[in-house]
Amino acid sequence: MPSNSATVRHLAMEAPVLLLAYGLLRLIDGLDGARGPGLVWTLAHMMFFAAMVLFGVLAAAVRPLVPAGARTVATVAAGAVVAGVACFLWVIAGDLSVAFREAAPLPEPLWIAGPLLFSLGLLALLGLLVAARRVPVWSPLLLGAGVAAIIIDIDFLPPAALILLAALSPLARPAREGSAGTLVATENGRRARGERRIISA
User: Please, how many CA atoms are within 13 Å of residue 6, restricted to the half-sphere of its CB?
Assistant: First the structure.
């Protein structure tokens, strides 16, 4: 089993960390009882924008980790995530620019479809990675819990982001511990060392 790429390992951590930063800055911005344009508000939205971009890239990056037989389903799931990300970015851009929001408002059906596509796409990808033994079964369960927390109350974003961080943390490892590939590589290494000892003797 090939190791997770450096891109996947970094994105699995950086995307939820940026989402956590957005959630914390959002809470800080609301301490005065109002949320609105300002330095903290703008910085928070920039973090949110960056986080969503990284989630989209992560979805595309993990697709090759899915076995070839499920690659079509993985492609559809990754496409759903990217479509959901596009909707989020559209809204964030509108928040940052009133002119953009007035010129190109997000169509009303996409307000629901975007988050739904994003969430279901990520869940599907993690489910496929469970089947491929890339992540443990609790990974998509945690992801679902994190998404549910955000749906319940947007102010739950910081703990939800930490849950998403935990859900994606298995992808941050170079290779899944105890995987067949790791065991084979270890056994091959032992054999090679044994052969070298025999030759040197």
Answer: 0
- List, for residues 182-193, the tens digit of each pLDDT value: 433 444 455 545
Decide if 48 contacts 22 (C-beta within 8 A).
yes
Q: Is there a contact between 24 and 70 (Cβ–Cβ < 8 Å)?
A: no
Task: Flag whether 198 is in a domain.
Answer: no
Phi-psi map region of 13: left, alpha, beta (phi>0 left; psi -120 to 50 alpha): alpha
Give per-residue pLDDT as tens, 67-84.
888 999 999 999 999 999
**Can you tell me the distance from the alpha carbon of 132 to that of 170, in angstroms, rounded to the nearest whole number?**
13
Does residue 96 lie in a domain region? yes
Question: For residue 6, what are its two tokens?
Answer: 């450096």
Which range (5-19, 28-42, 130-144) has the least confidence? 28-42
> How many distinct structural domains can be found in the chain?
1
